[in-house]
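To whoever is on call:

I kicked off a structure prediction for a single chain this morning and the downstream step that reads the tokens threw a length-mismatch warning. I double-checked the sequence; it's 303 residues and nothing unusual in it as far as I can see. Pasting both halves so you can look.
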Amino acid sequence: MGQEIIRTTAFDLALEKPYLMHAVNGVSAAHLCHLLPAARHPAQHNQNQLTNFYHFQRALQLFRDELATGVTKANMNALLSTVMLICVHQFMLPQSQPDPGTSFVYAPAERRSECLRWLTIQHGFNALYAELGEVIWGSVWNPVFTDSDIKELASTIMTAEAGDDIHALFLELCEVTPDASSQNNPYYEALEHLLFTRRLKPGMNTFNKLVTFVGSVEGDFLQLLLCRDKRALLILAHWLALMIGLDQWWSSARCKNECVAITTFLMHDQDERVRALLRFPAQLVGIDLMAVELLDGHSIISS
């Protein structure tokens, strides 16, 4: 759906709005970097990387200039298209090879917010969304916004009867009671989104619903992530694992990198519920938790 809008509308808009054209060129150059990795094509990769940096620097400069003139019905489609490409660009893993050590999970406390920027960059979209108000429903992106809305569909998801053992375990660990809500439980909104989307078959038909999870990463839940709260990390790890299933060139490396980081950070936790919930993301990134548990058991016996 989104790709069709880009093909039919966004490219025409890019001819009118230089900031969008630069964003398109930047993502295109980043894609070439992905297709021509430095290990095999060093010269082409470096050239594409320079092109990528140049176009996104210009895109951001011109985008800020446009925002300064005001967000209107006339420029909303170009602005929305640009901010989506910015989010895609920021989500990409900057280094050629994954390195879980660069994750926010292993960063010093004062740097975690910066290291999680790939996920929180979407706050800019939320601000744009709020400024446009009802006008946004006239955007060319309206079909995507409508398709991504899960509120009514997920209204009955937060009960143990609504899912499987993993579902019930998440509710127990996150202390979701019958009277829980996003107002009194910091995990509620993110968990609701996760529990709903994990019932969907991963694929481009469910992409819009899955990716809008990022909108729940704010407020208290974001602070819990930055404090490396294990329940918040488990919710994020499961979402990352679902995103890996989409196999998108711009997101897979990032999702695997962060998923490995969270798994290795939590895999020695003594809470059996944590280990049980960690199995799915661990499996997706090739980590054998059974072997880890055997080693941990041997260490306890030896001591």
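Update from on-call: the warning came from a stale cache, not from the record. Cleared it. Sanity check on the structure: The chain is about 65% helix and 0% strand.
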